[in-house]
Amino acid sequence: MDDLLLDLVLAIAHHFLAFLLAALIAVELALVRPGLGTVDLARLGRVDSAYGGVAMLLILVGIGRVVWGLKGWEYYVYYPVFWMKMAAFVAIGLLSIGPTRHIVAWRRAGLATVPDAEVSRLRGWLKAEAAFLALVLVFAASMARGVGY
Ligand code: HEM
């Protein structure tokens, strides 16, 4: 595959996965409502697994863009905005550990209804993830244009 085509394919996959991740956070927020019960908890479990899978693919494709992208890896590794984007992405990963552990525990315990206080805590985490995702996009667009290089 020629370099330009590879760069294009990786960029398309990267955007696709990034939008998918945003959509999955939105679906999680729509499911995590007061009165969250068994059926939505099962849906939430599946959505959360998909979320983990998409995040992993995003990392792989992202690394692919660093290694095989047209600018070359040297462009990114000495570039603070790239590392700011990585830090914001890691923050999303860390914020998602709590929700995943809770969802698994609630499903294992066979809870009929999740207590409202827990639901509201989970929504807080998900909103924080969405806020960091917005930050990732700001850094991504800045990084693509060499802002602060
Ligand atoms: C939530 C996770 C991520 C989101 C939402 C995201 C989003 C984006 C977006 C929208 C762009 C295009 C920017 C533009 O052309 O204006 C981009 C570019 C890029 N991203 Fe990501 N990204 C994420 C994670 C990653 C990761 C984990 C890596 C690397 C390990 C990575 C590496 C790159 C690279 C190398 C580019 C190309 C920038 C350029 O054109 O110079 N991304 N990202």
UniProtKB/TrEMBL annotation:
InterPro entries: DUF2214_membrane. It comes from the Bacteria. Keywords: Membrane, Transmembrane, Transmembrane helix. Pfam families: DUF2214 (PF09980). The chain crosses the membrane at residues 12-31, 51-70, 76-98, 130-148. This is DUF2214 domain-containing protein. It comes from Kumtagia ephedrae. The lineage of its organism: Bacteria, Pseudomonadati, Pseudomonadota, Alphaproteobacteria, Hyphomicrobiales.
